Amino acid sequence: MAMSCVPMFPSPCPCVHITTSPCPCVSMSLSPPRVVLSPRYPCCPCIPQFGRTEVIDNSLNPDFLRKFVLDYCFEERQNLRFDLYDVDSKSPDLSKHDFLGQAFCTLGEIVGSQPPPRDPTPQGGAGWMTPPDSTPQDVATLQFCANKLDKKDFFGKSDPFMVFYRSNEDGTAIKVEVYDWDRDGSHDFIGEFTTSYRELARGQSHFNVYEVVNPRKKMKKKKYLNSGTVTLLSFAVEAEHTFLDYIRGGTQLNFTVAIDFTASNGNPSQPTSLHYLSPFQLNAYSLALRAVGDIIQDYDSDKMFPALGFGAKVPPDGHVSHEFPLNGDASNPACRGIAGVLEAYQRSLRRVQLYGPTNFAPVVNHVARSAATVLDGSQYFVLLIITDGVISDMAQTKEAIVNAAKLPMSIIIVGVGQAEFDAMVELDGDDIRISSRGKVAERDIVQFVPFRDYMSGGPGAGLSMAGLAREVLAEIPDQLLSYMKARGIKPPPVPPIPPETPPP
Question: Disordered: where is this region (predicted)?
Answer without folding.
Answer: 111-133
